């Protein structure tokens, strides 16, 4: 019996488990993989808050409180995705964070109706998405593998400019595109590639963390790290419930709820990309349902603490696709780090000193991985003439039209807010319409 217990224990705690959903990994070895995920999404997690708080005229103190809350909520959401509560959560290595998808609509709603209307709309919109999540099997009659493949491809392409902007120093930075940022981004990217090429064994999958470390050290030597965020940081701080009293404006609720539907599509695409690229299978109804329910319900919870909606982070899906590390226990260490970063503001402040150019050097490769995952999904659907037409038109219209947002000038503000600069929303709509109306019998292979 003792020998059997030892064998079982030896098998359950192993580095080999990093490539399995279940199983334990030694904590000291799991932490670097979890930290890698947090560093990959940290700046993107707080950037929407900075943009929306500026548009809504929030104070510096309010913004700092939102950043703290965002880290805690993102950590809680990730843990629920990994270890579901009832039917909420996918049981997949999905990392959650504050969504960029909502930024444009919040910058429209907030200045007009106030930040309290934003919070009220998130509560309602999150409940709607959460309820829809419980009926994912009906959604999947519309969201076919072909539609999901188009959406995943669009997500990847939409993130390429995000990675490029980070590589150049971040949108709005005084030294955007400077030679220093080119050096930081280039050295970081090169470090990631070389580490991936020459490292052996499990450590090979830490290429992003290694690149971030090399880039950060170089940034310190170049004087490009700003430590001002560490001034006047409290030791421990907890978020407050309903720091902003929600108001329920019908126009705001309609606008935000429509974006929740777009966000739901991105989540379906992210979940499909994860299972397709790493687990080599289609996502199940239970996984899609759990992902959507977690998105919606935790977003409503986030609003109760005055914060913005959360959703699955595509860049972390790209990181999983690149490293093949899917172990839930390992990813959970990153979620715990996020929660600690919120409870202990100094942790988040240190992570916030990571220069944008260093982050861009790592993320540009991860975002490209998402594009390739989408193309692989398209390949799995088959290149019939019908599928080629649906994919080509939806991607051409979605990616093309949104690069010229003035095309939408004749439409009402609500339509422009949702579609003018959101290629994922346009690809989603066009691909669904084409998939529904085009005859199924056209299956001639090219």
Biggest β-sheet: strands ordered side by side in the sheet: 1-2
Terminal CA distance: 61 Å
What is the CA-based Rg, rounded? 21 Å
Number of helices: 18
Query: Roughly how much helix do the residues carry, as a percent range?
Result: 55-70%
User: What is the strand tally?
Assistant: 2
Question: Which regions are unreliable across 5 or more consecutive residues at pLDDT < 50?
Answer: 1-11
Q: How many separate domains make up the residues?
A: 1
Mean pLDDT over all positions: 82
Structural class: mainly alpha
Order of helices and strands: HHHEHHHHHHHHEHHHHHHH
Strand proportion, as a percent range, falls in under 5%
Principal-axis shape equals globular
Major beta sheet, specifics? 2 strands, antiparallel
Structural commentary:
The structure is a single chain. The protein has helices at 2-12, 27-56, 60-82, 103-113, 115-133, 136-139, 145-167, 179-198, 207-221, 250-277, 285-304, 314-323, 328-343, 345-351, 356-381, 385-401, 413-419, 423-437, and strands spanning 96-98, 310-312. With 446 residues, the protein is mainly alpha-helical. The protein has one domain. Helix 4 (103-113) packs across helix 5 and helix 7 (145-167) runs parallel beside helix 16. The longest helix has 30 residues, at 27-56.
Task: Describe this protein with a few key phrases.
two-stranded antiparallel sheet; mainly alpha
Protein topology:
Elements (H helix, E strand, L loop, with lengths): L1 H11 L14 H30 L3 H23 L13 E3 L4 H11 L1 H19 L2 H4 L5 H23 L11 H20 L8 H15 L28 H28 L7 H20 L5 E3 L1 H10 L4 H16 L1 H7 L4 H26 L3 H17 L11 H7 L3 H15 L9
Antiparallel strand pairs: 1-2
Helix pairs in contact: 2-3, 2-4, 2-13, 3-11, 3-13, 4-5, 4-10, 5-10, 5-11, 7-10, 7-15, 7-16, 7-18, 8-9, 8-15, 9-15, 10-11, 10-12, 12-15, 13-14, 16-18
């Amino acid at each position: 019996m003792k020998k059997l217990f030892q064998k079982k224990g030896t098998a359950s705690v192993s580095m080999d488990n990093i490539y399995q959903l279940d199983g334990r990994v030694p904590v000291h070895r799991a932490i670097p993989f979890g930290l890698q995920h947090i560093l990959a999404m940290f700046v993107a997690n707080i950037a929407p808050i900075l943009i929306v708080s500026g548009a809504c005229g929030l104070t510096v103190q309010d913004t700092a409180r939102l950043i703290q809350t965002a880290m805690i909520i993102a950590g809680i959401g990730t843990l629920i995705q990994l270890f579901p509560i009832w039917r909420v959560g996918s049981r997949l290595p999905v990392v959650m964070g504050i969504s960029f998808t909502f930024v444009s609509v919040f910058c429209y709603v907030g200045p007009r109706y106030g930040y309290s209307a934003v919070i009220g709309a998130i509560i309602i919109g999150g409940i709607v998405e959460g309820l829809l999540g419980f009926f994912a099997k009906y959604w999947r009659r519309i969201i076919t593998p072909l539609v999901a493949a188009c959406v995943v491809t669009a997500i990847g392409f939409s993130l390429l400019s995000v990675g490029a902007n980070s590589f150049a120093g971040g949108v709005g930075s005084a030294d955007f595109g400077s030679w220093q940022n080119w050096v930081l981004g280039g050295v970081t990217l090169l470090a990631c590639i070389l580490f991936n090429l020459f490292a052996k064994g499990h450590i090979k999958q830490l290429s992003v963390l290694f690149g971030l470390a090399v880039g950060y050290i170089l940034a310190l030597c170049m004087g490009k790290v700003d430590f001002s965020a560490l001034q006047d940081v409290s030791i421990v701080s907890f978020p407050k419930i309903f720091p902003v009293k929600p108001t329920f404006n019908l126009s705001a609720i309609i606008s935000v709820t429509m974006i929740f539907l777009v966000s739901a599509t991105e989540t379906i695409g992210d979940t499909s990309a994860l299972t397709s690229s790493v687990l080599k299978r289609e996502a199940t109804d239970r996984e899609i349902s759990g992902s959507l329910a977690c998105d919606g319900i935790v977003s409503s919870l986030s609003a109760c603490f005055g914060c913005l909606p959360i959703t699955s982070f595509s860049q972390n899906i790209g990181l999983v696709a690149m490293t093949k590390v899917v172990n839930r226990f390992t990813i959970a260490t990153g979620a715990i780090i996020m929660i600690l970063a919120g409870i202990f503001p100094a942790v988040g402040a240190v992570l916030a000193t990571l220069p944008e150019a260093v982050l861009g050097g790592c993320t540009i490769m991860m975002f490209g991985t998402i594009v390739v995952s989408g193309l692989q999904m398209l390949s799995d659907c088959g290149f019939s003439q019908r599928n080629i037409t649906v994919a080509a038109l939806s991607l051409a219209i979605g990616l093309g039209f949104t690069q010229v947002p003035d095309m939408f000038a004749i439409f009402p503000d609500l339509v422009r807010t949702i579609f003018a600069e959101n290629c994922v929303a346009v690809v989603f709509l066009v691909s669904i319409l084409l998939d529904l109306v085009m005859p199924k019998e056209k299956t001639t292979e090219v």
